[in-house]
Design goal:
This protein is of the alpha+beta class. It contains 9 helices and 5 strands. The chain is 45% helix and 15% strand. A 5-stranded mixed β-sheet has the order 2-1-3-4-5, sandwiched between helices. Helix 2 crosses helix 3, helix 6 packs antiparallel against helix 7 and helix 8 crosses helix 9.
Length: 224
């Protein structure tokens, strides 16, 4: 059935207006972005096709221009628009957390870090440097590794924290596998970082491990 034959309230745009964006599936959200389909495919059909071809929204956002443009119904213009949407969402979240105490707004902080790291095809270790009111001074990617892991050097982390005159930090890294469960190495580096930063009176507030659908806090696990 063509999307034009749907009841208005069940079309993606109408559904969003009536129920909010969270009520929409990935395919419905993507269909709104695409606006139109292609020959023989509605916007929702095309969205479903793209999600099937790329396996997930994460892979779709992470695709390079060449890979993206080979997909049916999209090209350079849609790639540019998609990357702009991604960057705008990251800037919105960055501005949001920069105005807040990160401790009183943990959900916004997690959403921001997830938006920055989840789509990375390799492991990335990053940090939020915070002032004494726990407001963000700087976000920075510190280490990059292969899909198997990243080498994290506490001395370099401490040096960066002193450079930004940070009073506290939240660190995070992604698991490209999509599974957020921390490894023993994750727990070990967390303890080493806490000890190293403690020597210069900088608090490590949390270490977040980011997967596809879950973010695990090592502070909540009792590691910090």
């Amino acid at each position: 059935m063509s999307i034009t034959n749907w009841l208005k309230a069940e079309r993606p745009r109408g559904k969003l207006l009536q129920r909010g964006a969270t009520a929409l599936s990935d395919a419905e959200l993507l269909a709104i972005f695409l606006r139109t389909g292609t020959r023989g495919m509605s916007a929702i059909d095309l969205a479903c096709h793209l999600l099937n071809e790329f396996s997930s929204l994460r892979n779709l956002f992470a695709a390079d221009l060449e890979t993206f443009s080979h997909a049916k119904g999209v090209g350079t213009a849609k790639y540019v628009q998609l990357q702009a949407v991604l960057e705008m969402s990251q800037r919105y979240l960055a501005e949001t957390i920069s105005r807040q105490d990160t401790i009183s707004s943990p959900q916004d902080t997690r959403l921001y870090l997830k938006s920055r790291l989840r789509h990375k095809p390799h492991e990335v270790f990053a940090a939020l440097f915070l002032d004494n009111r726990h407001q963000v001074i700087k976000f920075e990617e510190l280490f990059q590794g292969t899909i198997d892991g990243a080498s994290v050097y506490p001395r370099k982390v401490v040096k960066k924290a002193l450079q930004y005159n940070a009073a506290a930090m939240i660190v995070a890294h992604n698991h490209p596998s999509g599974i957020a469960e921390p490894s023993q190495a994750d727990e070990s580096i967390t303890r080493r970082l806490k000890d190293a930063l403690g020597l210069v009176d900088i608090r490590l507030l949390d270490h977040l491990v980011i997967g596809d659908d879950e973010i695990i806090s090592l502070a909540e696990r009792g590691i910090l």
